């Protein structure tokens, strides 16, 4: 019998498997699909860490205290403070642990909800392969194409799972890391009717399996009112956008609606921008910018890889604003007036109509949109991840509806709620997966020693 059974081979599950195996536990990792990665490999690959070598090299002063402040402020203090503290307490050790495994990070970027730049980009496919190889080298058993169907509960304690094929996989502890439910229309309708106009994205395996299994075992669920769409995805679901979309707004673009008017402070977290976008006519917006912003592109980070979108036709280019207005179907006079008002605000001649003072969060100075060529990216919101889920304690133990520990059951990653609250700091999804996954694996492997 295995000692720690991990369900799901995204970043959270892989981190749990590695940390449990490194502690000496016998580990089995199950993944219902044939490939690893889950939603992790569809993300922009940004992790929110504070106090790193990459920040120091760039002259960025950051701290755990500032990270905690940003998490709570962006989450409107609806977060579980204990989970925020757990993220902050373990984030730097997890960053160093990942680097020790060979994970490499690129140039640090500023993004939503961050007082200072702390989005650390990495190649997510390399990341998950690195962790799987580490888990296997430590003796973990990997079972692809194995879908967990029900938890095995004996005398009030979780002791394994029953697979869809009817096989009983027994274990001392189970770590659920099976992702969210962005691909389950029924659960989205039940928990997030506010996302009715949003596109559906996320990993194909994100159908809420772990949530439902734990729910049946009595687990609590939290933060469902805060499910939000991610702004910046092209509205053509059959286009070549991929999973990440574009966030040119954080490099200096403005967002306008079909009337050619701005409707939001573009420096806000992109999930708040997504909510505002869905409230616009047809739920569509256009990120409008110029050559200066194009020069700030970074092809190593998908959300800032603007040139690639020109190549595949998703980013429109024009010599003048009037020509651009014609391409995207908005009134030319309105777009000209909107851009002029924005430029005047930047120059200090008038207040910004949406209250924008920075590029993203509290970082960066907006620049006028004046230099041809001009660009527009049609954008809407997509539910890529659900950012709500099971109630857990700081040791990643799943709590029931009365706040009591469900013996033998742990959870990590997108499946859990409580960390983000009512808002989302960029990089805390990947960050949470790695940090909480690692903590869950360590806790689950330690739990085996407490039982006779």
Which helices and strands occur, and which strands form pairs?
Elements lengths: L1 E6 L3 H12 L4 E4 L15 E3 L4 H5 L6 H11 L6 H20 L18 E3 L2 H14 L3 E3 L4 E7 L2 E7 L4 E9 L8 H7 L7 E2 L8 H8 L4 E2 L7 E4 L20 E3 L13 H9 L6 E6 H4 L11 H6 L4 E3 L2 H8 L3 H15 L27 E10 L5 E2 L6 E3 L5 E7 L16 H20 L5
Parallel strand pairs: 1-2, 1-8, 2-5, 8-18, 9-15
Antiparallel strand pairs: 3-4, 6-7, 7-8, 10-16, 11-15, 12-13, 13-15, 14-15, 17-18
What does this structure look like?
Residues 4-429 form the FAD-dependent oxidoreductase 2 FAD-binding domain. One of its GO terms (molecular function) is steroid dehydrogenase activity, acting on the CH-CH group of donors. Residues 1-20 form the signal peptide. The structure is a single chain. The protein has 452 residues and is an alpha/beta fold. The relative contact order is 0.21. The protein is elongated, with a radius of gyration of 22 Å. Helix 1 (11-22) packs parallel to helix 5 (124-137) and helix 1 (11-22) runs parallel beside helix 13. Strand 7 and strand 8 (168-176) form a beta hairpin. It folds into two domains: 2-226 and 386-450, FAD/NAD(P)-binding domain; 230-383, Succinate dehydrogenase/fumarate reductase flavoprotein, catalytic domain (Flavocytochrome C3, Chain A, domain 1, Alpha-Beta Complex), CATH 3.90.700. It has helices at residues 11-22, 53-57, 64-74, 81-100, 124-137, 185-191, 209-216, 270-278, 291-294, 306-311, 321-328, 332-346, 428-447, and strands spanning 2-7, 27-30, 46-48, 119-121, 141-143, 148-154, 157-163, 168-176, 199-200, 221-222, 230-233, 254-256, 285-290, 316-318, 374-383, 389-390, 397-399, 405-411. Strands 1, 2, 5, 6, 7, 8, 17 and 18 form an eight-stranded mixed beta sheet that branches. Strands 9, 11, 12, 13, 14 and 15 form a six-stranded mixed beta sheet that branches. The mean pLDDT is 94. The two termini are 15 Å apart.
């Amino acid at each position: 019998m295995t000692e720690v059974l991990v369900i799901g081979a995204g970043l959270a599950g892989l981190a749990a498997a590695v940390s449990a195996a490194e502690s000496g536990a016998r580990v089995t990792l199950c993944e219902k699909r044939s490939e690893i990665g889950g939603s992790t490999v569809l993300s922009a690959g940004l992790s929110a860490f504070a106090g790193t070598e990459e920040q120091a090299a760039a002259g960025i002063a950051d701290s755990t205290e500032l990270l905690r402040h940003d998490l709570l402020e962006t989450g409107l203090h609806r977060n579980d403070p204990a989970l925020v503290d757990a993220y902050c307490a373990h984030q730097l050790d997890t960053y160093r642990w990942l680097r020790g495994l060979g994970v490499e990070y690129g140039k640090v970027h500023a993004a939503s909800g961050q007082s200072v730049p702390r989005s650390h980009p990495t190649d997510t496919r390399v990341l998950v392969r690195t962790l799987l190889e580490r888990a296997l080298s430590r003796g973990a058993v990997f079972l692809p194409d194995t879908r967990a169907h029900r938890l095995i509960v004996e005398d009030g304690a979780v002791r394994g799972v029953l697979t869809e094929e009817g096989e009983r996989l027994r274990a001392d502890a189970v770590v659920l890391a099976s992702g969210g439910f962005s691909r389950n229309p029924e659960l989205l309708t039940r928990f997030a009717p506010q996302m009715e106009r949003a596109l559906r994205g996320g990993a194909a395996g994100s159908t809420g399996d772990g949530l439902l299994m734990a729910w049946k075992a009595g687990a609590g669920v939290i933060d469902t009112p805060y499910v939000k769409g991610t702004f910046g995805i092209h509205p053509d679901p059959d286009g070549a956008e991929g999973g990440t979309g574009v966030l040119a707004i954080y490099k200096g673009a403005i967002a306008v609606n079909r009337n050619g008017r701005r409707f939001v402070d573009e420096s806000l977290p992109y999930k708040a921008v997504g909510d505002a976008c869905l409230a616009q006519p047809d739920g569509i917006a256009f990120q409008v910018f110029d050559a200066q912003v194009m020069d700030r592109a970074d092809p190593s980070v998908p959300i800032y890889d603007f040139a690639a979108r020109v190549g595949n036709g998703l980013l429109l280019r024009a010599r003048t604003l009037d020509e651009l207005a014609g391409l995207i179907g908005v009134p030319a006079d309105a777009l000209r007036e909107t851009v002029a008002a924005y430029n005047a605000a930047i120059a200090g001649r008038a207040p910004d109509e949406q209250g924008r003072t920075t590029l993203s969060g509290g970082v960066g100075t907006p620049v006028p949109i004046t230099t041809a060529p001009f660009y527009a990216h049609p954008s809407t919101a997509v539910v890529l991840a659900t950012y709500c889920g099971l109630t857990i304690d700081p040791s990643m133990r799943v709590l029931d509806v009365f706040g009591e520990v469900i013996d033998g059951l742990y959870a990590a990653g997108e499946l859990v709620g409580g960390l983000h609250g009512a808002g989302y700091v960029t990089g805390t999804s990947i960050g949470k997966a790695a940090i909480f996954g690692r903590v869950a694996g360590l806790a689950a492997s330690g739990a085996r020693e407490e039982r006779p």
